[in-house]
Amino acid sequence: MRITRLAAVFGAMTMALTVAACGGDDSGSSGGSGSGASGIVGKAEKDKKLTIGVKADQPGLGLQTGSTYTGFDIEIGKLIAKGLGVEESGITWKTTVSANREPYIQQGQVDIVVATYTINDERKQKVNFGGPYYIAGQDLLVPTASTITGPDALAGKKVCSVSGSTPAKRIQTDYKSAQLQQFDSYSKCVTALAGGQVDAVTTDDIILAGYAAQEQYAGKFKVVGKPFSTEPYGIGLKKDDTAGCNKINDILKAAAADGSYKKAWDDTLGKSGKAAADLDVSKLTNCS
Amino acid sequence: MSTDAVLYDHPGPRARARNRIFTVVFGIALVALLYWIYHRFDVKGQWAGTLWKPFTQSSTWTDYILPGLKGTLQAAAIAMVLSLAFGILFAVGRLSDHRWVRIPAGIVVEFFRAVPLLLMMFFIFFGIPFVTEQPMSPLWAVVIALTLYNGSVLAEAFRAGVRSVPPGQSEAAYAIGMRKGQVMGQILIPQAARAMLPVIVSQLVVLVKDTALGYIISYNELLQMGVNNVAANFGNVIQAAMVAAAIYIAVNATLTAVAGWLSKRTRRSGKAPRTTRVLAGATDQTTGA
Amino acid sequence: MDVFSDADNLDVYVTGFLWILKLTLVGTLGAVVIGTLLAAFRVSPIPVLRGFGAAWVNIFRNTPLTLIVFFCYFGLYSTLGVVFSDDLELNNFWLGVVGLAVYTAAFVCEAIRSGINTVPPGQAEAARAIGMTFRQTLTMIVLPQAGRAVIAPLGSILIALCKNATIIGTIGLMESSNAMKELINSNGQAVFQIFFVFAGTFAVVLIPTGYGFGWLANKMAVKR
């Protein structure tokens, strides 16, 4: 009986691995005709509709309040949609979490993703990136009176981040002397920070600024302001949609020139008192 | 019911006095503990009006809590139906006369009973799409995981139930010319279901609670919407969790009450198999997972 | 290809299951002690104790463990100020043990109560007839017999506790579910291998354990 069971498990395992491997090969070759008419430019022209994947639980960036979404990422999404000729009423917002952004793009659940989405080489293998529209960096959120001045002052301190996230991993590998507390959401981290159970919360500075700007925490926290990583936020779309990517970069260039980028900032994260960084158009991706 | 009368004598004057002392001492200790908890929450400002105010606004309910509750109940309802079907199917499978049905059914049931639901859900959501090349919706990942686990537990419950039906029942059914399928479907399963009703219901309560694990794949259920999203907006995670806990308790207590009423009804109609006399009220055994 | 031949990954896996083992052992101890006490409360002559036992069972049995563990962190630790250890991980471990124990105790209590039901009333009546008190009747006559009938349900409760230990990951303990998540995050291509190793570990340990409890229950069953 036991032997049968083990054999079955291994059988299923080998089979599954084989299938997964084949699946990987397939996806590379089957979607070859993505650019042009079937990319987001064509779709937006034809349907006047766009589905945008955003975060739902990050104040200042992408926060769901009832059925509406607010935040800087949302405003960027609206700018892109407008540039593609899609009215605000034609936008469908879809909540994504960090772990499902690539699958959602690859499988066409969303047209573009604007969700604190760091451009990196690993992700570039799977999706294409327009932007970056903002350069964030990992930073620390601490109580106003805290003496923590940067990541090097974290030895023996308790730091909170979201489990499995890149910032959490960076603390584990680069700042081993810090004690890492992990939760499934930043609001729990911030609550623990408010209660004094942890000494700092760490993630991208822009996300921390969003929490610091919330009215119930007004004056209680500060962002340390010494970013120790570089996180260029991009706009994710299908890997083969080069035309769409170029179009997104053109829209961003135009938004930087006519002030609508700055307005998007001022209406959302600008309220935290942080001045808008200039959108550096020379750093835009080459879309390949 | 009869416990009070059986385990101890009717209290005399001295026992009554002693019981009164116990009552007072324990009562005071309990009240003191509750007050201390209340007081500590007060010191930490957890009763502050601003943290609770969102729950007096109807938009908090209509935007987060009710949609979250809907997500919880929706996943629970679909999974309940599917896991009952799964349970019956695999109970019959494990009772089959054919080895090639019995053994695979046994492997499936044993495997899914032994794997933590959290791992299962995570795997279905992130692993299965590798094979199907289709995104797995969070709802279905939750439903499938719940069905595989609770269905397997129910399969064992049904199997035990079928075994508890006196053999005379199926012998009589075969004697009047019923086929195997008819005996199972019309004679054994209905009686097994009645006998195992308490177990089935407590498993369904477990199922409702387990929808809460959907948070790891961001399924929009009560914890995700009513705790994480409310707290992202108002910064009141402790208060939101208290409200959510109260809702879970209310939903599950209702489910248990309905089940109690149902089992009383079936017992009164005299169709349930006779059970031996017991010391205390209705038994109900669950595994709690 | 082979994720587990990497020493770091293997370490993540082993650490994950060590936490599960510790949580299960200490949690079981706590759950059985509290659960037995609660069961005694629920059949005692004193109404306040009965009410307390009933309230405990109804509250903890109907609340998701995720929330209970959450309250252990944000209620017990954060608000009530109960600190088990200065070490963050160890403190979270003990908070998790408390959560697991108070939750599982509700199920243990109900299992013991229904075990008490299997003891024929004549036993308790005879005990009273020879002048035994409530405590003597319960501890010397009823519970020892009930204990045998309770082995099977208690077995499934403890197996459930072991699986539920994965939920302690919500307060950041790097137990097996978080370990699996971490390995999948960094080795996405091997998601099947990783899952089957983790799930297989649980299956290989828990399925025989289940049969063991079944065998024990049969062996110890009171012949009537």
TrEMBL record, chain A:
It comes from the Bacteria. One of its GO terms (cellular component) is extracellular region. Residues 1-21 form the signal peptide. The keyword Transport applies. PROSITE patterns: PROKAR_LIPOPROTEIN (PS51257). GO terms for biological process: amino acid transport. Keywords: Signal, Transport. Residues 49-272 form the Solute-binding protein family 3/N-terminal domain. The keyword ATP-binding does not apply. CDD domains: PBP2_GluB (cd13690). Belongs to the bacterial solute-binding protein 3 family. This is Glutamate-binding protein. It comes from Paractinoplanes ferrugineus. The lineage of its organism: Bacteria, Bacillati, Actinomycetota, Actinomycetes, Micromonosporales.
TrEMBL record, chain B:
SUPFAM superfamilies: MetI-like (SSF161098). The keyword DNA-binding does not apply. The chain crosses the membrane at residues 21-38, 73-93, 114-132, 138-158, 195-217, 237-262. It comes from the Bacteria. GO terms for biological process: amino acid transport. Keywords: Cell membrane, Membrane, Transmembrane, Transmembrane helix, Transport. Coiled coil: none annotated. GO terms for molecular function: transmembrane transporter activity. GO terms for cellular component: ATP-binding cassette (ABC) transporter complex. Residues 69-255 form the ABC transmembrane type-1 domain. PROSITE patterns: ABC_TM1. It is a multi-pass membrane protein. It is found in: Cell membrane. Residues 269-289 are annotated as: Disordered. Its main location: membrane. Belongs to the binding-protein-dependent transport system permease family. NCBIfam families: HEQRo_perm_3TM. This is Glutamate ABC transporter permease.
UniProtKB/TrEMBL annotation, chain C:
InterPro entries: AA_ABC_transptr_permease_3TM, ArtM/GltK/GlnP/TcyL/YhdX-like, MetI-like, MetI-like_sf. GO terms for molecular function: transmembrane transporter activity. It is a multi-pass membrane protein. Residues 17-208 form the ABC transmembrane type-1 domain. GO terms for biological process: amino acid transport. Pfam families: BPD_transp_1 (PF00528). It is found in: Cell membrane. This is Glutamate ABC transporter, permease. Belongs to the binding-protein-dependent transport system permease family. HisMQ subfamily. Keywords: Amino-acid transport, Cell membrane, Membrane, Transmembrane, Transmembrane helix, Transport. NCBIfam families: HEQRo_perm_3TM. One of its GO terms (cellular component) is ATP-binding cassette (ABC) transporter complex. The chain crosses the membrane at residues 20-43, 64-84, 90-109, 150-174, 194-217. Its main location: membrane.
